[in-house]
Amino acid sequence: xxxxxxxxxxxxxxxxxxxxxxxxxxxxxxxxxxxxxxxxxxxxxxxxxxxxxxxxxxxxxxxxxxxxxxxxxxxxxxxxxxxxxxxxxxxxxxxxxxxxxxxxxxxxxxxxxxxxxxxxxxxxxxxxxxxxxxxxxxxxxxxxxxxxxxxxxxxxxxxxxxxxxxxxxxxxxxxxxxxxxxxxxxxxxxxxxxxxxxxxxxxxxxxxxxxxxxxxxxxxxxxxxxxxxxxxxxxxxxxxxxxxxxxxxxxxxxxxxxxxxxxxxxxxxxxxxxxxxxxxxxxxxxxxxxxxxxxxxxxxxxxxxxxxxxxxxxxxxxxxxxxxxxxxxxxxxxxxxxxxxxxxxxxxxxxxxxxxxxxxxxxxxxxxxxxxxxxxxxxxxxxxxxxxxxxxxxxxxxxxxxxxxxxxxxxxxxxxxxxxxxxxxxxxxxxxxxxxxxxxxxxxxxxxxxxxxxxxxxxxxxxxxxxxxxxxxxxxxxxxxxxxxxxxxxxxxxxxxxxxxxxxxxxxxxxxxxxxx
Length: 517
What we know:
Blueprint: H1 3-11, H2 23-36, H3 44-71, H4 82-99, H5 108-144, H6 157-167, E1 186-189, E2 195-198, E3 204-208, E4 214-218, H7 234-238, H8 242-245, H9 254-290, E5 296-298, H10 300-319, E6 326-329, E7 337-339, H11 341-362, E8 373-379, E9 383-389, H12 397-400, H13 423-428, H14 435-439, H15 450-460, E10 464-470, E11 474-482, H16 494-499, H17 512-516
Helix pairs in contact: 2-3, 2-9, 3-4, 3-5, 3-9, 4-5, 5-9, 9-15, 10-11, 11-15
């Protein structure tokens, strides 16, 4: 597809917003289609109504995903990563397939053609998710190796050291400790060590003298040293990351920490867009081809039991000796709720797998009598909650924030020769039918969803994932699912994401979203 044709295609969807759906809408539509599946035409007549919605909605979601990748709100130039380039090409082709090569499903013939398109999109999802995972690994490697094509100069070690020497401390940062709104009064860390409110014109500049003492002098202009991105209101009004507010949690300095947080917000959005698009496609394909819908009334305890069993088997296979015992505690064992079964399975599977690994590694001198891992399920009026508790040594406070980073990985950089999935793997990839069967074949670590993705799955329909860790003891993971069937897909759209992003000051990148609107 030519650049002009691609831009024309994007222009049709750049200004549109996705339609947010609820669990109830997924479940009700799915049950209706299942009832009509045994009709003479296999349910295609009933499907034509929902197919018309999908034909309008999927291009909006995929189109905004492409625009988000092209615009790249992250400070790192992900467009230089080959896997992300291939991902953009794949999504562009998916968008062209839907918008230009598949007619609206208005007749039995065009409805059948649209169903075939959905099957093709579903078969590509594994390849796209694998490219995304490989791209993140490659991006992490590029950042660690300071690849000049991808890492901007102000985030490289020499600039960070120079910034630290020039500033003599973090007193340039606002109460959210990075990217202050330079047009408004703000809190700052005074030389006395106290947080004070001041006008930018009254800030003091620090410098380190030869004797090692910090000296401060007043100046009448806003300092340019700490301002690495163009001034905006992001961290003073938008960013509520704990790591931005607490200087103890900074990786190196506030600029690098906010670069990490900005990157995380982008990939949170990207994964959410992929999750919703994939759920829409797979739900309808599962109904027509396999006779079940993905959003179901489930018994969470049954799924938790299976996830714990499969994670234990993987642990035993990896280490070669019996895994720590996973004790399941459920005061209300018969609880039901409406949810996506393989989403819950994947989340609990990952949490238990992490707890097993931490326990074995922390008590590596043992081969038996490991501390018990507890998986507790509780149900209230609003939530179904799980707690996975281990005695795996815990995590220092300074490292907790890195748990949620997409750039932290237990596997090495992507191998350019690493093959893409076979045709059969693509066809079955990440579907609810095969996910729980294939999960047991995963290694103990380096594959799977990872905690950032698990948290996005939990948040997608109003839940959440939290970790509380005590260094030297262990970690408690709290997974919450909303019991409300009116829980809606997240509302952060592309324009909100781009408006909250921070363009680098060297050089400014044009906004494709605003250009195409």
